[in-house]
Amino acid sequence: MKYCFYGWEHADVPAVNEKYQGIHTPRDLYEALSGIWCADTCAPRMRQNWTPENKTLGQCSVTAFLAQDIFGGKVYGILRPGGNYHCYNAVGDCVFDLTSEQFGEEVLDYKDNPEQLRQVHFEKEEKRLRYEYLKKELEKWEPPALEERFEFRNIRPEEADQAARIESVCFPPNEACTPAMMHQRVETAPELFLAASDRRTGKLAGFLNGLSTNEDTLRDEFFVNAGLYEPDGKNIMVLGLDVLPEYRGMGLARALMSRYQTREREKGRKKLILTCLESKVGMYEKMGFLDHGISASAWGGEQWHEMSCTLKP
Question: What is the pTM of this model?
Answer without folding.
Answer: 0.67
